[in-house]
Amino acid sequence: MKIGVLASGGGTNLQALLDAQISGALAPGQIVVVGVNVEGCGALDRAQKAEVPTFCLSHKGFADRSAFDAALAAELGRFDVQCLVLAGFMRILTPGFLESFDHGVINIHPALLPAFPGIHAQKQAFDYGVKFAGCTVHYVDGGVDSGPIIAQAVVPVLPDDTEESLQQRILGQEHKLFPATVQQVAAGRVSRVGRKVFLNSK
Ligand code: GRF
After folding, report:
1. Which end of the chain has fewer surrounding CB within 10 Å, N or C?
2. Beta strand extents in the chain (DSSP E only)
3. Virtual CA dihedral for 80, 83, 86, 89, nearest 10 degrees?
4. Which of 118, 91, 115, 119 lies closest to 105, judged by CA?
5. How far is the CA of 153 from the centre of ligand 1 (A)?
6. Does the beta carbon of 108 sit less than 6 angstroms from any atom of ligand 1?
7. What is the rounded distance in angstroms from the CA atom of residue 94 to the CA atom of residue 121?
8. What is the per-residue burial (b if ≥16 Cβ within 10 Å, else e) of 79-100?
9. Which residues contact 153 (CB under 8 A, 6 or more apart)?
């Protein structure tokens, strides 16, 4: 399955996906292109070092979301992307764009959804005083972190945690959960009935 990845930041989740690809742990998924919307971001550098095709498309030159998404779809279409993976891509995507991938669009969010959607999710959880936090891999729909949940991982919040230490503990789980879940999707082990997503272990 041809996978495209979009990112905007440092790209540690992208790196986990690239490492999985190199070790064979993503198969039958294959990352065919990495796109970024922020020039010079770490994710772009990581993809180039891994010798995966890349493109950089800034959203700034576009009149509206639809125009940007149309250009994005054209870039991804050149690589026949079947499944799109968002690894820290900080843009809302339009419904028409989301529907153009046969195997959907998948995101990772650093909280146990539906709690703490949106930005600074780890800070939201830390400030709230939860005892367990974590991360969620989910299909993307038209809302903010509101699509069907595929997989989650939980971490404890420890008494001497800072926002930073909690963020790092969550990130450690993200790097395991994301490649493993993308591999399951690529292997066709995921079935979906409405909002409910099941992983079929074979
Ligand atoms: C991660 O925390 C991810 O959950 C969120 O954005 C962050 C990206 O970090 N969607 P990185 O660029 O992968 O290091």
Report:
1. C
2. 2-7, 30-36, 54-56, 83-86, 105-109, 132-139, 149-156, 190-193, 196-199
3. 30
4. 91
5. 15
6. yes
7. 22
8. bebbbbbbbbbeeebbeebbee
9. 134, 135, 173, 174, 176, 177
> Catalytic annotation on 109?
yes
Written as six digits, the tokens of 164 are 């930073």
- Distance from residue 152's CA to the centre of ligand 1 (Å): 15
% of the chain at pLDDT higher than 70: 99
Q: Are strands 132-139 and 149-156 parallel, antiparallel or unpaired?
A: antiparallel
Q: What is the dihedral of CA 82, 45, 26, 53, to 10 degrees?
A: 40
Phi, psi dihedral angles at 154 (to 5 degrees) = -110, 140
User: How far is residue 27 from each of residues 55, 144, 184, 186, measured CA to CA in Å?
Assistant: 23, 29, 9, 7
| Residue 127 burial class via C-beta count within 10 angstroms: exposed 0-12, middle 13-18, buried 19 and up | exposed
**Nearest residue CA, atom 2 of ligand 1?**
110
Distance 192 CA to ligand 1 centre (A): 25
Q: What are 144-154's pLDDT values in tens digits?
A: 999 999 999 99
pLDDT tens for each residue of 20-37: 999 999 999 999 999 999
CB 174 within 8 A of CB 138: no
| Count of beta carbons in the 10 Å neighbourhood of residue 164 | 11
Q: Give the phi and the psi of residue 133 in degrees, each rounded to 5.
A: -130, -170
Domains of the chain with CATH codes: 2-199 (3.40.50.170)
